[in-house]
Specification:
- The chain is α/β, with parallel strands linked by helices and 308 residues long.
- The chain has eleven helices and 14 strands.
- Strands 2-1-3-13-4-14 form a six-stranded mixed sheet, sandwiched between helices. Strands 8-9-7-10-6-11 form a six-stranded mixed sheet, sandwiched between helices.
- Helix 2 links the parallel strand 1 and strand 2.
- Helix 3 packs across helix 4, helix 4 crosses helix 11 and helix 5 packs across helix 11.
- The N and C termini lie far apart (64 Å).
Length: 308
């Protein structure tokens, strides 16, 4: 009987823990604001994120936030999982990744992020001046240098532009490969400088990158630019966005939005904003930007289903 009583007592204790343990943990974590970032260099990104998080947290005590944490994800799929499981509250990301997190985890964009004074940018397709290629319609049977699958301006948007033009992209194993005559071959160059170099050396016929990189001599040297010609430019889209998980307490979301909107006018935030990817200010998400994100969202779906 004593064994039975001990078993019953253990079962009762387990039931009590099941009933009160999880709410207690949730209540304990409710005071923590978790900032997430998709990263291939967690140490560098931690140093960029932490100062702004340290600025934000003390200004959110009125809604119960007293602590901040940072959680890195290796890719959008893992970040979407963190958002769905309430492990991340706030994410800063580029536009194409932001719409993927909307699709996969119902994340909500709350603000535009202006970096280096720029809130919107666009993608540029370019070729050598002596190239016979004059428009996207001339690209079948030719090759394009892109950056990486994680890039908005040098992958996702260019891919969307090709699909919208009725073209069929085809990934190649190396710059020396050739696509089918009716397809546009593409190769990942890993960096903007490589994109420019490969086109300049005639390893590939065309390249795509953002207009910001097009005008940045460290990404596209002036000596190269003089030999290039732009053949197509996309519509502008947001430079970056701040998102929150769908289940975040509305009071916390509202206060976070207020603090970030006011940060540009607060001298105490200046250094933290600079470290936060050279952010100059946060802006309300206007209707025009929301429409642009809708278009980009549809483009991302097409790329995922028709290319990848």
């Amino acid at each position: 009987m004593s064994t039975v009583r001990r078993w019953i007592q253990a079962a009762c204790m387990a039931a009590i823990v099941a009933i009160i343990g999880l709410p207690a943990q949730a209540a304990e974590d409710a005071h923590v604001l978790v900032l997430g970032r998709i990263s291939d260099d967690p140490k560098e990104h931690y140093d960029q994120l932490k100062p702004l998080l340290d600025y934000v947290v003390p200004r959110m005590r009125e809604v119960g936030i007293t602590e901040g944490r940072i959680l890195m994800a290796r890719d959008a799929q893992q970040m979407a999982s963190y958002l769905r499981r309430n492990r991340v509250d706030w994410v800063t990301e580029t536009a194409s990744t932001a719409v993927q997190l909307q699709q996969r985890a119902a994340a909500r964009p709350i603000l535009l992020t202006e970096r280096n004074g720029v809130s919107h940018y666009h993608s540029v397709f370019f070729v050598r001046k002596d190239s016979p290629i004059r428009s996207l319609q001339d690209l079948p049977g030719h090759t394009v240098a892109l950056q990486s699958i994680a890039s908005t301006s040098a992958y996702m948007v260019p891919m969307t532009e090709l699909l919208d033009a009725g073209l069929s992209p085809e990934i190649l194993l190396a710059p020396s490969d050739m696509p089918a005559p009716d397809r546009v071959g593409y190769v990942f160059a890993r960096s903007e400088l490589n994109i420019a170099s490969w086109v300049h050396k005639r390893l590939l016929d065309a390249g795509a990158l953002s207009n910001l990189d097009w005008n940045d001599p460290s990404r596209l040297p002036d000596a190269f630019r003089g030999d290039f010609r732009v053949i197509h430019e996309s519509h502008p889209y947001p430079r970056a966005l701040e998102l929150v998980r769908s289940s975040l307490d509305p009071k916390v979301e509202k206060r976070l939005r207020e603090v970030l909107l006011q940060a540009a006018d607060d001298p105490e935030a200046r250094q933290a904003m600079r470290l936060f990817f050279n952010t100059s200010r946060f802006l309300p998400l206007d209707p025009a930007s929301e429409r642009t994100l809708d278009v980009l969202r549809a483009g991302v779906q097409r790329v995922r289903s028709e290319v990848e």
